[in-house]
Each structure stands twice: as C-alpha cells, then as structure tokens.
Hints:
By secondary structure, the chain is α/β, with parallel strands linked by helices. The chain has a single domain (3-237), classed as Glycoside hydrolase/deacetylase (TIM Barrel), CATH 3.20.20. The chain contains nine helices and eight strands. The strands form two sheets. Strands 1, 2, 3, 7 and 8 form a five-stranded parallel β-sheet that branches.
Amino acid sequence: MHRVAFTVDVEQDAPPFMATWRGMNEGMPPLLALLSRHGVRATFFVTGAAASRFPQLIAEISRNHEVGCHGYDHERFDRLPVAEQRARIRAATDILQQITGAKPSGFRAPNFRCTADTLKILAELGYTYDASAAMYHRANHDRDTSIVRLANTLPSSVLRLPSLLARSILVTCTRFSEPVVLDQHPWELVPMSGLRPDMRFATGHEAIKRLDGLLAWLTSRGVHFVLMRDIAAERMHG
C-alpha cells in the first residue's frame, strides 16, 4: 500500500441532525491519542464555529497537524448566494488564522457540496487547494478551477466497518486512488443514537477500537501518511 492522507472534519455532532458538541469534548481526546500513538499527522478541516468554541484545542492541534477550513457553521455552500458564501468563508478563515497563527491553505465544504463560485472565492482568498470533491459524489468532480482539487476516497463510515472488510476495501482503493484520502469525525468516536444507520453503527468505543486496529495495520504495511497541503504542493509544482 502507498500513501494515505488521514483527514478529520471538525464540527458539531452529526450535523444537521444534532447541535451538541460531545465529539469535541469526548471524541477528540481519544482520536488525538490514537494519531499520536501511531505517529500519524492528519489534516483537520475545522468550522469557524468549532474553532470559536474550542480555540485552545484547535491551537493545540495546529502544532502537530494541518488545520484547514470547513466553512463557518457546517452550512451547505451549494445552497447559499455567492456573497454569503464569501462572507462565511472569509469569517471562518480569519478565525482559524487568529487561533493557529497561520492562514489555512485548504478548504473542505460541508457535505462535500460546493459550487463553481465557491472555488473562485477560495482562489480569491488565497487558498491553494479544495478538498470538497468525493469519489462517491460524482457531480463535484469536473469543475474548472485555478486551485488544486483533492478528492476524498471513502465515506468515514468505512473506517467503522469490521476490520477485515475495511482492510479489503482500502487495498482495493489503492488501485485507483493515489493517495488514498480517509475521512473521520470526532463525533463518530462517541456513541450515537437516533440517527440513520450509517451514522450510528459501531460508534463510540467500537469506533475507537476499530480505528486503532486499522491505523496499526496501515503502519505495519509501511504506509506513509501525508498532509493534504503537501499533496497539493506536489501537484501545483509537478
């Protein structure tokens, strides 16, 4: 297996279905502990709202990992007027820069939904890459843009599947995706209920256990974990 980019979407719990923050309080500590244990540096796409509520935590994350933007309040950018998109991205960008001391270079739209206007705004604001495309959302792929586009390979729920199945899927993905881009949410490491099946199965302790095993398996196979900004830089200059 080759390179893997491990990404984390930092937001309220299971938006838009919940408005709580258990993922930040209860899910983020074990997630950061797992990444540290396995020597994995990750890219965290953080909403402005999450950064405003947990500035010390986001500042701490930025010391060891990449911090990108995930919108202001997990809004659907494909449903917003252009002026509102610009205002929300600019506001979130300013918050993240103030907290981390560095302007984010990457953006991921909530729900992997953005428009051609979103990409133009990102270029205007100095972003170098967009991570709002997903291989399972075909409509988001082919848009002309001056910034690098990096597609997510798998839904985050795949990481909560039984180990043998998750590993088989990852091996298959290496045949058509370089690097493999994985996605995770802190709230998945907290027991979820009252949600649709894909958002609640194997959450909480089971999610932590399976992620621990998966990271151990990946590192044992010599996988090189990379940051999204480094992939973008390669493609910009390659």
